[in-house]
Structure prediction request, 53 residues.
Amino acid sequence: MYINKHKLWELSLAHLFGFNFKKYTQLVTKHLLLEAEIHTIINIRGKSFKFSH
Prediction:
């Protein structure tokens, strides 16, 4: 059976951004908050609150 790789990629993207969108955004948010905390050590604390909206 021949599987179109492009279609498979689209399906995996749809799965990632559809069903697992909440998990994905939580991971991204955690990553951004970690970066923000690291920058907060150097910068003014208020700048990190741009990520939490």
User: Anything to note?
Assistant: Residues 5-50 form one domain. The radius of gyration is 17 Å. The CA atoms of residues 5 and 11 lie 10 Å apart.
